[in-house]
Fold Protein DETOXIFICATION.
Amino acid sequence: MDPTTPFLGNEVKEDYSPARTLSEVKRVFSMESAKLWKIAAPIGFNIICQYGVTSFTNIFVGHIGEIELSAVSISLSVIGTFSFGFLLGMGSALETLCGQAFGAGQVHMLGVYMQRSWIILFVSCIFLLPIYIFATPVLRLLGQAEEIAVAAGEFTLLTIPQLFSMAFTFPTSKFLQAQSKVIAIAWIGFVALIMHVAMLWLFIVVFGWGTNGAALAFSITNWGTAISQIVYVIGWCNEGWTGLTWLAFKEIWAFVRLSIASAVMLCLELWYMMSIIVLTGRLDNAVIAVDSLSICMNVNGVEAMLFIGINAAISVRVSNELGLGRPRAAKYSVYVTVFQSLLIGLVFMVAIIIARDHFAIIFTSSEVLKRAVSKLAYLLGITMVLNSVQPVISGNTIISFLPSKTKPEVFITS
């Protein structure tokens, strides 16, 4: 079988009946909500913990000085987001392949797909390496202030190890998510966040290493996450992991094409934040402009990471249901997820507007910066609502069948 071909069940088995009455809709909503959050809650928690590593890095650096906060924010928001978006997108091909393979009972293929993705993402990191090495001239070219560009370039160089950790973290996470082994991912993410905060305090507050200490803690934490996930896969996932295999190199170019296709949409979604930060750096009083927007982006990022987690969960749900030959269940999963995502976005908006004069204190003690953030709060709230649904449904291709079961109907949500 072509390794890039989705697994589809040969026949529909115990699929949902059409929900025509209110009681049937409530029943489906309740069942799908339980199934979704059983997967989404641990995944979302883990991704928020991973994002917390970035946020706490900004928080600790923000109390060193405004220039340092601008430099680290530029590094993580521009260089870091560029590589994060590309590598996460390249790894997203596994969500469909592993999810449907698991649903169809082809569990042994999960380890092959994961290793193939390791290879592709590791090579991708090598191609991304020049951006890290030449970060200072790149940021100068993008119009960043000289002082910020130099400091950001120095910080970026020290985070090169973190770049290569993503080549293993993303595929391993998709491997575990496809099997709904998400509790382990959540625990690994939580422990990594706690250890990261401890290292930031030790390196910055106790040792006084400044941004160098922040970069060191950042790389150590991310590699700790990658190694912990690999150890869990090897030790506790015997069905999906059968050892290293040369099959990982077979038909790798077809897998590359699928990975690139998966990366395009996600890259465009994440890189727009990078573009906004770059443009802000060209304004007058760039330090305050970049810092205030970076604080808002950090808060928005917490919500964004939650919805990336929900997106991963719905991808697992849909892929598993298609692998089992239950297209209507897959479709209903999407409907329930979109509705709940919109409600969550509205809650975030209300919370931001209520706390608009206070939430910046987490990142800075500057009164000027606090006022600048407060002015952006309403736009931030609207952005969080708009971003609540779109990441969940973008790029998902759902295959459903007409009641006759003889003609496939394909619709793409975007």
User: Anything to note?
Assistant: Strands lie at 397-401, 408-412.
